[in-house]
Amino acid sequence: MNLLRGCHQRSHLHYDWSRGKSRDATFINSAKNFISSHKITGIEIDFECYIWQAPPSDAPNLTSFHNDLRSGLCSSHISLATLAGHWSLEG
């Protein structure tokens, strides 16, 4: 597996979930191509580091992204490290 990291501790570098399906599809296709070209079984994505007071829209957008990722990567292994607390996504 390889690691894709979603953000840095500086808030301006976090993954912007508000960008929507087009950006998510680009990311998912890129991950799919990476897995295929490097002949690996899957990826690990670390989205644990996060900015405080994230927009409320991040919770449903993050869930939607995870669902699309699972569908897009078919049988590839996916390991996700995401936020554990609801309070992190309340905004």
Gross morphology: globular
Order of helices and strands: EHEHE
Strand content: 15-25%
Number of distinct helices: 2
Total domain units: 1
Intertermini distance: 32 Å
Total beta-strand segments: 3
Task: State the secondary-structure class.
Answer: alpha/beta
Q: C-alpha Rg, in Å? A: 13 Å
Instruction: Report strand order across the widest sheet.
Output: 1-2-3
> Major sheet: size, sense and barrel closure?
3 strands, parallel
Percent of residues in helical segments?
25-40%
Low-confidence stretches: 1-5
Average pLDDT reading: 74
Please characterize this protein's 3D structure:
The structure is a single chain. With 91 residues, the chain is α/β, with parallel strands linked by helices. It has one domain (2-89). The chain is built from two helices and three strands, in the order βαβαβ. Strand 2 (42-46), helix 2 and strand 3 form a beta-alpha-beta unit. Helix 1 (21-37) packs parallel to helix 2. It is 35% helix and 15% strand.
